[in-house]
């Protein structure tokens, strides 16, 4: 056995391993060689217990992922609901405040119609109207527009030849709204076409169709009294 090993070493030649830290040619420090054994291509396959453990971990991972996705969806819905409620509360508060200012705006409008909006009062009134306009308050209602019960409130009614449909001929009080929300309908005087008046008058002036009862004649309805004959003479006693 010893002779065979010596023969093999003689054929291969001596093996020289340079373990110096400094490369004599470049003068740089050498990195230590990785002496770990390479992974064998025929590594040991995982056992049945390892496979079950891996499947269990994958199942738990999928469950946790679903939990996180569900939690994220709930949080997103919560944020949307909070934002929607916050917007609704803001709109309600704004509508309440602006609704309390409507009588003041009516007074300003009447003062403007009578040319009493002058001086410092005019400056304050214009500033107030500008502020409520920035907050989204809009006035509506113009004379001559068709009557709409959704946005108009009729306080006066008349007939006219100048209209062909129910029309708001006069704005008694302007209406106000915020966006799609109506704070107060426009209070108007409504005029209808005179053709409607003529139809109503004709229907009211039609004579009654009931016939008056005729008086009953003596020949048709009178009956002779008891104790008298047909000529009206009384029957004598025997």
From TrEMBL:
Where in the sequence does UniProt note compositional bias of the Low complexity kind?
200-219
Ranges in coiled-coil conformation:
54-88
- Domain of life, per lineage: Bacteria
Query: What UniProt keywords apply to this chain's record, in alphabetical order?
Result: Chaperone, Coiled coil, Cytoplasm, Stress response
UniProt record similarity statement: Belongs to the GrpE family.
Protein function: Participates actively in the response to hyperosmotic and heat shock by preventing the aggregation of stress-denatured proteins, in association with DnaK and GrpE. It is the nucleotide exchange factor for DnaK and may function as a thermosensor. Unfolded proteins bind initially to DnaJ; upon interaction with the DnaJ-bound protein, DnaK hydrolyzes its bound ATP, resulting in the formation of a stable complex. GrpE releases ADP from DnaK; ATP binding to DnaK triggers the release of the substrate protein, thus completing the reaction cycle.
Annotated region (Disordered) at: 1-54, 186-238
Q: What protein am I looking at?
A: Protein GrpE
Cite the record's note on assembly.
Homodimer.
| Comp. bias (Basic and acidic residues) | 1-33
Q: Where in the cell is it found?
A: Cytoplasm
Ranges of Gly residues composition bias in the record: 229-238
